Amino acid sequence: TVTGAAQSAITSLGTLTGLTVSGAVASGDLTITSTAPFISFVDSDNDDDFNIQVSGGLFSINSTTDSATRLQINSSGNLAVDTDTLYVDATNNSVNIGTTTPSGLTPLLHLHKGSSGATAYLHITNTDSGVASSDGFIVGFNGSNDALLFNKESTPMRFATAGLERMRIDSSGRLLLGTTTEGDPGADDFT
User: How far apart are the first and last CA of the chain?
Assistant: First the structure.
């Protein structure tokens, strides 16, 4: 079904203004030419509505319900989700979470929490550990900017070089150097 201001004048292929298409489009190409072309998707069930737009070299998917950009890709291939929730920097081949500004270190992954006194953690879990805040392993900063390596499980933290374990903090909090067992006579034992 084709509706719009020019509906009654459609006799051949040409230029239309204010075209609305409802139903399925079986095949073919659709080209929209404008300084800021967009396609709107209006949900008739009163759910959120979206549009796809190209403007100023940016391809974006926008929520028209709350006027927010949900996804944006620029001509360099950089991708942003919700402005700075997730930012893929195609130029530096890095992923930034919480910021669109790389740290200058060109990391593969950059986590940033944009408020003073905020915690910023990478929380790693699996099926065995569970997914709650009391589970898994945390790397990050607390609100005082203390750097944390935090094992939430009752398992040791193991440190290795050259493929061999060199140091361990066991689940009782004992520091073991050169051994995995307390009391090993051939190792430094700081328990």
Answer: 79
Encode pLDDT of 59-100 as tens digits: 999 998 888 999 999 999 999 998 778 888 888 777 888 888
Contact 29, 12 (CB under 8 A): no
Cα-based angle 60, 115, 75 (whole degrees, multiple of 5): 20
Rounded-to-integer distance, Cα 89 and Cα 77, Å: 8
DSSP β-bridge partners for residue 91: none
Residue type, 105: L
pTM higher than 0.70 = no
Kindly tell me if the per-residue pLDDT of 4 is higher than 70: no
Print the SS3 string covering 35-61.
Answer: CCCEEEECCCCCCCCEEEEEECCEEEE
Q: Is 96 exposed, middle or buried (0-12, 13-18, 19+ CB in 10 A)?
A: buried
Token pair for 164: 């061999």
Query: For the purposes of burial, counting CB atoms within 10 Å of the CB of 89, is it exposed (0-12), middle (13-18) or buried (19 or more)?
Result: buried
Long-range contact pairs involving 132-140 (C-beta distance under 8 Å, separation at least 24): 140/111
Residue-wise pLDDT for 135-175, tens only, equals 999 998 888 989 999 999 999 999 999 999 999 999 888 88
